[in-house]
Amino acid sequence: MNKKERFCDVDNIVEWRHIITALLTLIAMAGQGQVMEQRGQSGVHSNYAESRQKKTEGQVKCHVEGTLETDAWGDEIIICEAGTDLRVVDEPRFHVKAKDGHFTYNIETDFPRLYDVFFLKQYETGRLFVGKFLAENCNVNVTMFADKKPRITTNGDEGRKHAAKDSIEDVRFWNPVREIDDQLENPDRRAEFFKADFISAINEAKTWNVDSLPQAYVDSVRQIINHYMQNRNEMYTTKGWQLKQQRDSITDGLRPFRLAYAKEHPMLWTLYDVLDAIQTLKHADDYVNFDPSEWEPYLTLYHDKFINLYPSHPIHDQIATAETAYRLQPGKPYIDYTVRNTDGQLVSISSLISGKVALIDLWASWCGPCRRHSKAMIPIYEKYKDKGFTVIAIARERNREAMENAAKKDGYPWQSLLELNDENLVWRKNGADNAGGAMFLIDRDGTILSTSTDAEELEPLIQKALKIE
Fold first, then answer.
1. What is the pTM for the complete model shown?
2. Would you place residue 234 in the very low, low, confident or very high pLDDT band (cuts 50, 70, 90)?
Protein backbone atom coordinates (compact mmCIF):
# COMPACT_ATOMS: atom_id res chain seq x y z
CA MET A 1 0.00 0.00 0.00
CA ASN A 2 1.26 3.44 -0.89
CA LYS A 3 1.13 5.66 2.14
CA LYS A 4 -0.80 8.87 1.91
CA GLU A 5 -1.38 11.52 4.47
CA ARG A 6 -4.62 11.93 6.34
CA PHE A 7 -5.49 15.43 7.48
CA CYS A 8 -6.84 15.53 11.02
CA ASP A 9 -7.66 18.64 12.99
CA VAL A 10 -4.02 19.31 13.80
CA ASP A 11 -3.08 19.72 10.16
CA ASN A 12 -6.07 20.50 7.96
CA ILE A 13 -6.10 24.24 7.41
CA VAL A 14 -3.70 25.18 4.64
CA GLU A 15 -5.32 25.37 1.22
CA TRP A 16 -2.40 23.55 -0.40
CA ARG A 17 -2.99 20.57 1.85
CA HIS A 18 -6.65 20.57 0.92
CA ILE A 19 -5.64 20.50 -2.74
CA ILE A 20 -3.34 17.53 -2.16
CA THR A 21 -5.99 15.74 -0.11
CA ALA A 22 -8.52 16.17 -2.88
CA LEU A 23 -5.92 15.08 -5.43
CA LEU A 24 -5.14 11.88 -3.56
CA THR A 25 -8.85 11.20 -3.21
CA LEU A 26 -9.28 11.59 -6.96
CA ILE A 27 -6.35 9.27 -7.62
CA ALA A 28 -7.87 6.66 -5.33
CA MET A 29 -11.11 6.99 -7.29
CA ALA A 30 -9.50 6.18 -10.64
CA GLY A 31 -11.46 3.39 -12.30
CA GLN A 32 -14.22 3.34 -9.73
CA GLY A 33 -16.71 5.45 -11.62
CA GLN A 34 -18.19 6.78 -8.39
CA VAL A 35 -17.24 9.37 -5.82
CA MET A 36 -15.83 7.71 -2.72
CA GLU A 37 -15.98 9.34 0.67
CA GLN A 38 -12.81 10.93 1.95
CA ARG A 39 -11.49 8.98 4.92
CA GLY A 40 -9.53 11.84 6.31
CA GLN A 41 -12.11 13.01 8.77
CA SER A 42 -12.09 10.86 11.83
CA GLY A 43 -15.76 10.33 12.51
CA VAL A 44 -15.36 6.76 11.61
CA HIS A 45 -18.02 4.39 12.67
CA SER A 46 -21.39 3.59 11.15
CA ASN A 47 -23.93 3.62 13.97
CA TYR A 48 -27.03 3.47 11.80
CA ALA A 49 -27.33 -0.29 11.46
CA GLU A 50 -26.78 -0.79 15.18
CA SER A 51 -29.30 1.83 16.21
CA ARG A 52 -31.77 0.44 13.68
CA GLN A 53 -31.59 -2.93 15.44
CA LYS A 54 -32.59 -1.34 18.74
CA LYS A 55 -35.91 0.15 19.66
CA THR A 56 -35.67 3.92 19.67
CA GLU A 57 -37.24 5.04 22.91
CA GLY A 58 -37.31 8.73 22.05
CA GLN A 59 -35.54 9.71 25.25
CA VAL A 60 -33.60 12.42 23.45
CA LYS A 61 -35.11 15.20 21.34
CA CYS A 62 -32.82 17.64 19.60
CA HIS A 63 -33.91 20.55 17.42
CA VAL A 64 -31.48 21.92 14.82
CA GLU A 65 -31.70 25.35 13.19
CA GLY A 66 -29.34 26.14 10.34
CA THR A 67 -28.25 29.09 8.20
CA LEU A 68 -26.32 29.03 4.92
CA GLU A 69 -23.75 31.78 4.57
CA THR A 70 -22.99 30.62 1.03
CA ASP A 71 -24.76 29.19 -2.02
CA ALA A 72 -21.52 27.81 -3.48
CA TRP A 73 -22.42 24.27 -2.43
CA GLY A 74 -26.13 24.33 -3.17
CA ASP A 75 -28.95 24.03 -0.69
CA GLU A 76 -28.87 20.35 0.30
CA ILE A 77 -27.42 19.44 3.70
CA ILE A 78 -26.61 16.02 5.14
CA ILE A 79 -27.26 15.40 8.83
CA CYS A 80 -26.48 11.87 10.02
CA GLU A 81 -24.80 9.99 12.83
CA ALA A 82 -21.05 10.48 12.82
CA GLY A 83 -19.32 8.04 10.53
CA THR A 84 -22.38 6.93 8.57
CA ASP A 85 -21.11 5.72 5.20
CA LEU A 86 -23.45 7.16 2.58
CA ARG A 87 -22.12 4.78 -0.04
CA VAL A 88 -23.83 1.98 1.88
CA VAL A 89 -26.51 3.55 4.07
CA ASP A 90 -28.15 6.64 2.60
CA GLU A 91 -31.63 7.35 3.92
CA PRO A 92 -33.93 10.16 2.73
CA ARG A 93 -34.08 11.38 6.32
CA PHE A 94 -30.39 12.31 6.16
CA HIS A 95 -31.08 14.88 3.43
CA VAL A 96 -32.23 18.36 4.44
CA LYS A 97 -33.19 21.06 1.96
CA ALA A 98 -32.58 24.68 2.91
CA LYS A 99 -35.14 27.27 1.92
CA ASP A 100 -34.11 30.89 1.53
CA GLY A 101 -30.83 30.07 3.24
CA HIS A 102 -32.35 28.38 6.29
CA PHE A 103 -33.12 24.82 7.38
CA THR A 104 -34.52 22.97 10.39
CA TYR A 105 -34.14 19.38 11.49
CA ASN A 106 -35.42 17.30 14.41
CA ILE A 107 -33.64 14.31 15.92
CA GLU A 108 -35.22 11.75 18.22
CA THR A 109 -32.95 9.02 19.52
CA ASP A 110 -32.43 6.73 22.48
CA PHE A 111 -29.15 8.18 23.76
CA PRO A 112 -27.23 11.40 23.14
CA ARG A 113 -25.20 10.64 20.01
CA LEU A 114 -22.61 12.40 17.87
CA TYR A 115 -23.88 13.76 14.54
CA ASP A 116 -22.23 15.14 11.41
CA VAL A 117 -23.49 18.01 9.28
CA PHE A 118 -22.09 18.98 5.87
CA PHE A 119 -23.04 20.00 2.33
CA LEU A 120 -24.00 17.12 0.05
CA LYS A 121 -22.04 18.61 -2.85
CA GLN A 122 -18.92 18.79 -0.69
CA TYR A 123 -19.28 15.09 0.00
CA GLU A 124 -19.66 14.39 -3.71
CA THR A 125 -16.49 16.29 -4.57
CA GLY A 126 -14.43 14.81 -1.73
CA ARG A 127 -13.59 18.15 -0.10
CA LEU A 128 -15.48 18.00 3.14
CA PHE A 129 -15.90 20.58 5.89
CA VAL A 130 -17.70 18.56 8.54
CA GLY A 131 -19.40 20.01 11.58
CA LYS A 132 -20.09 17.81 14.61
CA PHE A 133 -22.55 18.13 17.45
CA LEU A 134 -23.99 15.97 20.19
CA ALA A 135 -27.70 15.39 19.75
CA GLU A 136 -29.02 15.68 23.29
CA ASN A 137 -32.09 17.32 24.78
CA CYS A 138 -31.23 20.73 23.43
CA ASN A 139 -31.35 23.24 20.59
CA VAL A 140 -28.47 23.37 18.11
CA ASN A 141 -27.63 26.28 15.81
CA VAL A 142 -25.53 25.63 12.70
CA THR A 143 -23.98 28.15 10.31
CA MET A 144 -22.64 26.70 7.05
CA PHE A 145 -19.73 28.28 5.18
CA ALA A 146 -18.11 27.77 1.79
CA ASP A 147 -14.55 26.99 2.82
CA LYS A 148 -14.44 26.15 6.52
CA LYS A 149 -16.16 23.94 9.04
CA PRO A 150 -19.68 24.90 10.14
CA ARG A 151 -19.98 27.02 13.26
CA ILE A 152 -22.11 25.18 15.82
CA THR A 153 -23.57 26.37 19.11
CA THR A 154 -25.74 24.37 21.46
CA ASN A 155 -27.49 24.84 24.80
CA GLY A 156 -27.06 21.18 25.76
CA ASP A 157 -25.06 20.30 28.85
CA GLU A 158 -22.57 18.07 27.02
CA GLY A 159 -22.30 20.49 24.13
CA ARG A 160 -21.45 23.35 26.47
CA LYS A 161 -18.72 21.28 28.13
CA HIS A 162 -17.13 20.67 24.75
CA ALA A 163 -17.53 24.32 23.73
CA ALA A 164 -15.63 25.39 26.85
CA LYS A 165 -12.72 23.20 25.81
CA ASP A 166 -12.89 24.54 22.24
CA SER A 167 -12.76 28.15 23.42
CA ILE A 168 -9.50 27.47 25.27
CA GLU A 169 -8.12 25.65 22.22
CA ASP A 170 -8.91 28.62 20.02
CA VAL A 171 -6.97 31.04 22.18
CA ARG A 172 -3.97 28.79 22.81
CA PHE A 173 -3.70 27.03 19.46
CA TRP A 174 -6.01 27.85 16.58
CA ASN A 175 -5.90 31.65 16.64
CA PRO A 176 -2.08 31.76 16.23
CA VAL A 177 -2.26 28.91 13.71
CA ARG A 178 -4.80 30.80 11.62
CA GLU A 179 -2.51 33.82 11.53
CA ILE A 180 0.18 31.64 9.98
CA ASP A 181 -2.25 29.95 7.63
CA ASP A 182 -3.52 33.31 6.40
CA GLN A 183 -0.01 33.98 5.18
CA LEU A 184 0.52 30.55 3.63
CA GLU A 185 -2.89 30.60 1.92
CA ASN A 186 -2.47 34.06 0.42
CA PRO A 187 -2.45 33.44 -3.36
CA ASP A 188 -0.36 36.55 -3.91
CA ARG A 189 2.41 35.15 -1.70
CA ARG A 190 2.58 31.52 -2.88
CA ALA A 191 5.92 32.02 -4.62
CA GLU A 192 7.27 33.48 -1.40
CA PHE A 193 6.50 30.36 0.62
CA PHE A 194 6.37 27.44 -1.86
CA LYS A 195 8.96 26.24 -4.34
CA ALA A 196 8.27 26.76 -8.03
CA ASP A 197 8.33 23.07 -9.00
CA PHE A 198 5.79 22.23 -6.30
CA ILE A 199 3.47 25.05 -7.41
CA SER A 200 3.80 23.86 -11.00
CA ALA A 201 2.94 20.26 -10.07
CA ILE A 202 -0.13 21.30 -8.12
CA ASN A 203 -1.36 23.66 -10.84
CA GLU A 204 -1.06 20.85 -13.38
CA ALA A 205 -2.82 18.38 -11.11
CA LYS A 206 -5.78 20.71 -10.67
CA THR A 207 -6.54 20.40 -14.42
CA TRP A 208 -6.66 16.60 -14.50
CA ASN A 209 -9.61 14.42 -15.37
CA VAL A 210 -8.39 11.46 -13.34
CA ASP A 211 -10.81 8.91 -14.80
CA SER A 212 -9.33 9.47 -18.26
CA LEU A 213 -5.71 9.03 -17.18
CA PRO A 214 -3.76 5.77 -17.71
CA GLN A 215 -3.21 3.87 -14.47
CA ALA A 216 0.58 3.96 -14.92
CA TYR A 217 0.46 7.76 -15.09
CA VAL A 218 -1.75 7.97 -12.04
CA ASP A 219 0.67 5.71 -10.15
CA SER A 220 3.64 7.87 -11.12
CA VAL A 221 1.87 11.02 -9.98
CA ARG A 222 0.93 9.35 -6.72
CA GLN A 223 4.62 8.67 -6.14
CA ILE A 224 5.44 12.34 -6.72
CA ILE A 225 2.76 13.49 -4.29
CA ASN A 226 3.80 10.89 -1.73
CA HIS A 227 7.38 12.16 -2.05
CA TYR A 228 6.25 15.67 -1.17
CA MET A 229 4.18 14.33 1.73
CA GLN A 230 7.17 12.47 3.13
CA ASN A 231 9.61 15.30 2.46
CA ARG A 232 7.65 18.36 3.49
CA ASN A 233 10.63 20.67 3.43
CA GLU A 234 10.89 20.22 -0.35
CA MET A 235 7.53 21.97 -0.79
CA TYR A 236 8.63 25.16 0.90
CA THR A 237 11.06 27.99 0.41
CA THR A 238 13.26 28.78 3.40
CA LYS A 239 10.77 31.39 4.58
CA GLY A 240 7.82 29.05 4.05
CA TRP A 241 9.56 26.24 5.94
CA GLN A 242 10.18 28.55 8.88
CA LEU A 243 6.46 29.34 9.02
CA LYS A 244 5.62 25.64 8.75
CA GLN A 245 7.92 24.82 11.66
CA GLN A 246 6.45 27.66 13.70
CA ARG A 247 3.00 26.25 13.03
CA ASP A 248 4.12 22.75 14.01
CA SER A 249 5.58 24.00 17.28
CA ILE A 250 2.12 25.32 18.18
CA THR A 251 0.10 22.28 17.12
CA ASP A 252 2.52 19.85 18.78
CA GLY A 253 0.98 20.87 22.08
CA LEU A 254 -2.60 20.28 20.99
CA ARG A 255 -2.90 16.55 21.65
CA PRO A 256 -1.31 16.72 25.14
CA PHE A 257 -3.65 19.61 25.98
CA ARG A 258 -6.70 17.62 24.91
CA LEU A 259 -5.66 14.61 26.96
CA ALA A 260 -4.93 16.69 30.05
CA TYR A 261 -8.23 18.54 29.69
CA ALA A 262 -10.15 15.30 29.24
CA LYS A 263 -8.70 13.86 32.45
CA GLU A 264 -9.94 16.83 34.45
CA HIS A 265 -13.25 17.40 32.64
CA PRO A 266 -15.04 14.09 31.92
CA MET A 267 -17.60 14.38 29.13
CA LEU A 268 -19.39 12.16 26.64
CA TRP A 269 -17.52 13.71 23.72
CA THR A 270 -14.25 12.26 25.06
CA LEU A 271 -15.62 8.75 24.59
CA TYR A 272 -16.04 9.52 20.90
CA ASP A 273 -12.47 10.82 20.89
CA VAL A 274 -11.35 7.47 22.31
CA LEU A 275 -13.17 5.66 19.51
CA ASP A 276 -11.55 7.97 16.98
CA ALA A 277 -8.10 7.31 18.46
CA ILE A 278 -8.49 3.52 18.26
CA GLN A 279 -9.58 3.66 14.64
CA THR A 280 -6.79 6.08 13.79
CA LEU A 281 -4.30 3.60 15.25
CA LYS A 282 -5.92 0.81 13.25
CA HIS A 283 -5.26 2.71 10.02
CA ALA A 284 -1.78 3.93 10.90
CA ASP A 285 -0.44 2.79 7.51
CA ASP A 286 -2.61 5.41 5.83
CA TYR A 287 -0.53 8.17 7.39
CA VAL A 288 2.86 9.62 6.60
CA ASN A 289 5.20 10.00 9.59
CA PHE A 290 2.55 8.62 11.92
CA ASP A 291 3.33 8.79 15.65
CA PRO A 292 1.20 6.29 17.61
CA SER A 293 2.29 7.84 20.91
CA GLU A 294 -0.08 10.71 20.21
CA TRP A 295 -3.08 8.36 20.16
CA GLU A 296 -2.28 5.41 22.41
CA PRO A 297 -2.78 7.45 25.62
CA TYR A 298 -6.48 7.63 24.78
CA LEU A 299 -6.76 3.87 25.32
CA THR A 300 -5.01 4.17 28.68
CA LEU A 301 -7.23 7.11 29.62
CA TYR A 302 -10.34 5.13 28.73
CA HIS A 303 -9.46 2.02 30.71
CA ASP A 304 -8.11 3.96 33.70
CA LYS A 305 -10.77 6.64 33.99
CA PHE A 306 -13.67 6.53 31.53
CA ILE A 307 -14.73 2.92 31.12
CA ASN A 308 -17.55 3.51 33.63
CA LEU A 309 -18.49 6.97 32.35
CA TYR A 310 -22.11 6.85 31.13
CA PRO A 311 -21.96 3.05 31.50
CA SER A 312 -25.20 2.29 29.64
CA HIS A 313 -24.28 4.32 26.56
CA PRO A 314 -23.76 2.26 23.37
CA ILE A 315 -20.47 4.07 22.69
CA HIS A 316 -18.82 1.56 25.05
CA ASP A 317 -19.85 -1.35 22.81
CA GLN A 318 -18.47 0.53 19.81
CA ILE A 319 -15.17 1.16 21.61
CA ALA A 320 -14.91 -2.51 22.59
CA THR A 321 -15.57 -3.59 18.99
CA ALA A 322 -13.03 -1.10 17.65
CA GLU A 323 -10.40 -2.17 20.15
CA THR A 324 -10.90 -5.84 19.21
CA ALA A 325 -10.58 -4.91 15.53
CA TYR A 326 -7.42 -2.95 16.29
CA ARG A 327 -5.84 -6.19 17.54
CA LEU A 328 -6.54 -8.04 14.27
CA GLN A 329 -2.91 -8.40 13.27
CA PRO A 330 -0.81 -11.29 11.91
CA GLY A 331 -0.18 -13.87 14.59
CA LYS A 332 -3.41 -13.05 16.43
CA PRO A 333 -6.60 -15.14 16.30
CA TYR A 334 -9.27 -14.00 13.86
CA ILE A 335 -12.66 -13.04 15.27
CA ASP A 336 -16.02 -14.73 14.78
CA TYR A 337 -19.11 -12.88 13.62
CA THR A 338 -22.38 -13.47 11.80
CA VAL A 339 -22.90 -13.22 8.05
CA ARG A 340 -25.64 -14.30 5.68
CA ASN A 341 -24.76 -17.29 3.53
CA THR A 342 -25.78 -17.65 -0.11
CA ASP A 343 -29.18 -18.98 1.03
CA GLY A 344 -29.75 -15.87 3.13
CA GLN A 345 -29.36 -17.71 6.43
CA LEU A 346 -27.35 -16.22 9.28
CA VAL A 347 -24.22 -18.30 9.93
CA SER A 348 -20.93 -17.76 11.75
CA ILE A 349 -17.88 -16.91 9.66
CA SER A 350 -15.95 -19.60 11.60
CA SER A 351 -18.28 -22.28 10.21
CA LEU A 352 -17.33 -21.25 6.67
CA ILE A 353 -13.56 -21.30 7.11
CA SER A 354 -13.04 -24.06 9.68
CA GLY A 355 -10.17 -26.36 8.74
CA LYS A 356 -9.20 -24.35 5.65
CA VAL A 357 -6.65 -21.79 4.67
CA ALA A 358 -9.04 -18.96 3.88
CA LEU A 359 -8.88 -15.46 2.50
CA ILE A 360 -11.60 -13.21 3.88
CA ASP A 361 -12.16 -10.69 1.08
CA LEU A 362 -14.21 -7.66 2.13
CA TRP A 363 -15.06 -5.76 -1.05
CA ALA A 364 -17.72 -3.58 -2.68
CA SER A 365 -18.94 -2.96 -6.21
CA TRP A 366 -18.19 0.75 -5.79
CA CYS A 367 -14.60 0.24 -4.57
CA GLY A 368 -12.20 0.17 -7.49
CA PRO A 369 -9.06 -0.74 -5.48
CA CYS A 370 -10.96 -3.58 -3.74
CA ARG A 371 -11.99 -5.05 -7.06
CA ARG A 372 -8.49 -4.81 -8.48
CA HIS A 373 -7.13 -6.68 -5.45
CA SER A 374 -9.87 -9.30 -5.76
CA LYS A 375 -9.25 -9.86 -9.47
CA ALA A 376 -5.55 -10.31 -8.80
CA MET A 377 -6.42 -13.22 -6.49
CA ILE A 378 -8.30 -15.18 -9.18
CA PRO A 379 -5.30 -17.09 -10.62
CA ILE A 380 -4.06 -17.84 -7.10
CA TYR A 381 -7.47 -19.19 -6.12
CA GLU A 382 -7.62 -21.38 -9.22
CA LYS A 383 -4.14 -22.73 -8.46
CA TYR A 384 -4.82 -23.72 -4.84
CA LYS A 385 -8.61 -24.20 -4.54
CA ASP A 386 -8.29 -28.00 -4.67
CA LYS A 387 -5.49 -28.04 -2.11
CA GLY A 388 -7.33 -26.62 0.88
CA PHE A 389 -7.50 -22.91 0.02
CA THR A 390 -10.74 -20.96 -0.22
CA VAL A 391 -11.94 -17.39 -0.60
CA ILE A 392 -14.85 -16.08 1.44
CA ALA A 393 -15.90 -12.85 -0.24
CA ILE A 394 -18.33 -10.46 1.46
CA ALA A 395 -19.71 -7.49 -0.45
CA ARG A 396 -20.86 -4.32 1.30
CA GLU A 397 -23.77 -3.01 -0.76
CA ARG A 398 -27.09 -1.23 -0.82
CA ASN A 399 -28.60 -3.90 -3.08
CA ARG A 400 -27.85 -7.42 -4.32
CA GLU A 401 -27.89 -6.48 -8.01
CA ALA A 402 -24.82 -4.24 -7.65
CA MET A 403 -22.83 -7.10 -6.12
CA GLU A 404 -23.95 -9.64 -8.72
CA ASN A 405 -23.20 -7.35 -11.66
CA ALA A 406 -19.73 -6.48 -10.37
CA ALA A 407 -18.88 -10.12 -9.57
CA LYS A 408 -20.00 -11.20 -13.04
CA LYS A 409 -18.04 -8.43 -14.76
CA ASP A 410 -14.86 -9.19 -12.81
CA GLY A 411 -15.24 -12.94 -13.25
CA TYR A 412 -14.88 -14.05 -9.65
CA PRO A 413 -14.91 -17.86 -9.51
CA TRP A 414 -16.01 -17.85 -5.88
CA GLN A 415 -19.39 -16.88 -4.47
CA SER A 416 -19.89 -13.61 -2.65
CA LEU A 417 -21.91 -13.17 0.49
CA LEU A 418 -23.92 -9.97 0.90
CA GLU A 419 -23.59 -7.47 3.74
CA LEU A 420 -26.66 -5.38 2.95
CA ASN A 421 -26.80 -1.89 4.45
CA ASP A 422 -24.31 -2.86 7.18
CA GLU A 423 -26.82 -5.32 8.60
CA ASN A 424 -24.30 -7.34 10.60
CA LEU A 425 -21.69 -4.59 11.11
CA VAL A 426 -19.06 -6.76 9.42
CA TRP A 427 -16.90 -3.82 8.38
CA ARG A 428 -16.86 -2.30 11.83
CA LYS A 429 -16.02 -5.63 13.44
CA ASN A 430 -13.07 -6.02 11.07
CA GLY A 431 -11.86 -2.48 11.65
CA ALA A 432 -12.51 -1.54 8.04
CA ASP A 433 -14.87 1.25 9.14
CA ASN A 434 -15.64 3.48 6.15
CA ALA A 435 -13.03 1.84 3.93
CA GLY A 436 -14.20 0.04 0.83
CA GLY A 437 -12.70 -3.25 1.93
CA ALA A 438 -9.92 -5.32 3.47
CA MET A 439 -8.37 -8.79 3.31
CA PHE A 440 -7.47 -11.27 6.04
CA LEU A 441 -5.55 -14.47 5.27
CA ILE A 442 -6.50 -17.04 7.93
CA ASP A 443 -4.67 -20.29 8.75
CA ARG A 444 -6.48 -23.57 9.44
CA ASP A 445 -6.34 -22.96 13.19
CA GLY A 446 -7.91 -19.49 12.90
CA THR A 447 -4.67 -17.51 13.20
CA ILE A 448 -4.29 -14.41 11.04
CA LEU A 449 -1.41 -14.88 8.61
CA SER A 450 -1.64 -11.55 6.81
CA THR A 451 -3.74 -8.45 6.35
CA SER A 452 -2.10 -7.55 3.04
CA THR A 453 -4.18 -7.00 -0.09
CA ASP A 454 -1.24 -7.69 -2.41
CA ALA A 455 -1.60 -10.99 -4.29
CA GLU A 456 2.17 -11.31 -4.72
CA GLU A 457 2.67 -11.04 -0.96
CA LEU A 458 -0.16 -13.45 -0.20
CA GLU A 459 0.74 -16.33 -2.52
CA PRO A 460 3.92 -17.49 -0.72
CA LEU A 461 2.05 -17.34 2.60
CA ILE A 462 -0.71 -19.49 1.13
CA GLN A 463 1.85 -21.97 -0.19
CA LYS A 464 3.51 -22.18 3.22
CA ALA A 465 0.20 -22.65 5.02
CA LEU A 466 -0.76 -25.41 2.59
CA LYS A 467 2.71 -26.95 2.99
CA ILE A 468 3.41 -26.68 -0.74
CA GLU A 469 7.04 -26.57 -1.74
1. 0.79
2. confident
